[in-house]
Hints:
Blueprint: H1 2-8, H2 12-17, H3 22-40, E1 50-53, E2 69-79, E3 96-103, E4 109-114, E5 119-121
Antiparallel strand pairs: 1-2, 1-5, 2-3, 3-4
Amino acid sequence: MFLFRRFFRGGHREAWAKKVSAAEASAVRDHLVRLHREFEKRHSFKVGELVQWKAQMRVRLLPRYGEPAVVVATLEQPIFDKAAEDSGSPFFREPLDLALGVIDNYNDFVIFYFDSRRFEPFQSSGR
């Protein structure tokens, strides 16, 4: 976690070259285990249901954290983004099995496909 913060603050060369301390490695390990456990929790969504990103699982601009999206379709056979053919992409082989309707910046209803493991039922209190 500390290593990632340094990288995004601009000190990326130094951060990636330096070996992490045992305390930093332990903190990252615990955080990864917690996030993986949350990622693997599955929900059965139904068309018309409102959903939101799970905490720290957002990989797209929309919907924003705490903002609902409506389930338009669930796919039994996921599709894979042909544009994400590079194994260096975070979207490489990501199974897109959930079609969600969101309101874009122009106030239009648009549909995008997502990995359902990144979503949970909408809670109006938000995050």
